[in-house]
Design goal:
5 helices; Umud Fragment, subunit A
């Protein structure tokens, strides 16, 4: 957040926290707009870091996500004073066919995270490419994934497609016996999983940041 004014920094902190809560709660901006009754343009301006809500709207957002108001408005320092170790989380690039997901051939770099604050499990980062999950996950942002073969309906997953050679971020939706990979951007079409169009869930999105 270097070279930002105080107001810009506050808006960016708010936007980052709101987008992280969307991922954690398995919600979309459309859900927030529908459930709170706030104007679409207003809600999107908060999540994009363009505007800052009034105090009554901040409290309404906190109530909606069932968190304290400070969880939305304050920068996440999360006990930095007690840091004892850092863990390198691999960033996956192109996927080598047939290799384990976090094999060296697939790793293009690492990010260091505070060990005490990490969720359990095998973790890796993906860099979002394209706008299919915008505005929830903007193009170029980094998403932390916890490796697991299944996620709950409505949660965002990292999914292998195209013969396990490409990994994509999509929201999982079950409709009867059909499983669909849903983009949050309505300009994109769902990916319907079939025997001729297979896909495999490799993990759940647990954190997102645009600040790396």
């Amino acid at each position: 957040m270097k070279n930002m004014t105080t107001a810009q920094k506050q808006r960016q902190i708010l936007a980052d926290n709101l987008n992280e809560l969307l991922l954690q709660k398995g919600k979309t901006q459309a859900d927030v707009i529908r459930d709170t009754g706030f104007a679409e343009a207003t809600v999107r301006s908060w999540f994009n870091g363009d505007k800052y809500p009034r105090i009554d709207k901040l409290q309404a957002l906190a109530d909606y996500f069932n968190v304290s108001r400070s969880r939305i408005t304050e920068e996440r320092t999360d006990n930095l004073q007690r840091v004892t170790s850092l863990t390198k989380i691999p960033i996956l690039g192109e996927i080598a066919c047939g290799e384990p997901i976090t094999a060296e051939e697939n790793v293009e770099g690492y990010m260091e995270e505070i060990t005490e604050l990490l969720p359990t499990g095998n973790l890796f980062y993906l860099k979002a490419k394209g706008d299919s999950m915008a505005p929830t996950i903007p193009n170029g942002s980094y998403v932390m994934i916890r490796q697991q073969p299944e996620v709950e309906d409505g949660e965002i997953a990292a999914v292998l497609v195209n013969g396990d050679t490409e990994i994509t971020l999509k929201r999982i939706k079950h409709q009867g016996n059909i499983v669909m990979l849903m983009p949050d951007n309505t300009e994109f079409n769902p990916y319907i999983i079939t025997p001729d169009n297979p896909a495999r869930i490799v993990g759940k999105a647990v954190k997102m940041s645009t600040l790396f």
